[in-house]
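Module 6 notes. Inverse folding takes a fixed backbone as the condition and produces residue identities as the prediction. Think of it as a translation problem where the source language is geometry and the target language is the twenty amino acids. Below is one complete input and output pair. Work through it position by position during the lab.
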């Protein structure tokens, strides 16, 4: 569904991505691993359209999207859960969820009960402001807001960062459930190998703007992956 082919990305004169290629398919979790500052978030910015690429190609469902603005990519079914969650602190939980309506036709603008089946805690907090939620609750809200958009590709940037272990397990269960339905491609950026190993079918490891190791989870040497994450 998603084909990233030899893209470069610059911030001014500094190059953040060098000839990066990756794919993501429906019914599978593709995980990008790497230490801080190696280009993981830059890759997600390129895919979602929040930063232009310098060269290469990004194709989604067979169509070139490299030059489309971020809102057009969202309309085509690409949802982004950014690092740090970025919920609207002064809006209520309900209002935060409803911001996902922007890319939907009017007849589909409703928060389905399934969202609350996935994240029951949100149903009890609909009138609370986003800024009053704990970090773990905000992360659940950010993922739920993305799911309101009815995406076919969801891009998650370090959803475990600063989250308590019990909520990490809940988020992992939701990701695995979404994958198992076979309708959505999931691209997950992480630093923690154990979380990725439990969920991912394909793993790619980045270093200094390059993908230095990639393959199916069972084909990769765990010691080699961990070494590249700890150096």
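Target side of the pair, the amino acids:
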């Amino acid at each position: 569904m998603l084909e990233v082919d030899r893209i470069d990305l610059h911030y001014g004169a500094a190059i953040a991505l060098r000839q990066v290629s990756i794919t993501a398919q429906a019914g599978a979790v593709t995980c990008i691993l790497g230490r801080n500052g190696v280009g993981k978030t830059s890759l997600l910015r390129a895919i979602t359209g929040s930063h232009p690429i310098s060269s290469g190609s990004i194709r989604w469902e067979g169509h070139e999207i490299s030059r489309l603005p971020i809102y057009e990519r969202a309309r085509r079914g690409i949802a982004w859960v950014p690092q740090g969650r970025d919920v609207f602190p002064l809006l209520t939980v309900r209002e935060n969820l409803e911001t996902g309506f922007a890319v939907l036709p009017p007849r589909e603008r409703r928060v389905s009960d399934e969202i609350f089946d996935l994240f029951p805690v949100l149903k009890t907090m609909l009138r609370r402001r986003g800024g009053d939620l704990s970090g773990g609750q905000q992360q659940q809200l950010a993922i739920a807001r993305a799911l309101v958009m009815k995406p076919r590709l969801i891009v998650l940037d370090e959803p475990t960062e600063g989250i308590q272990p019990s909520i990490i397990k809940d988020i992992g269960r939701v990701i695995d459930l979404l994958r198992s339905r076979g309708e959505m491609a999931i691209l997950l950026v992480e630093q923690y190998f154990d979380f990725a190993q439990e969920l991912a079918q394909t793993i790619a490891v980045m270093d200094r703007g390059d993908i230095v190791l990639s393959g199916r989870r069972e084909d990769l040497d765990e010691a080699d992956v961990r070494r590249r994450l700890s150096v």
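Reference fact for the lab report: DSSP finds nine helices and ten strands in the chain.
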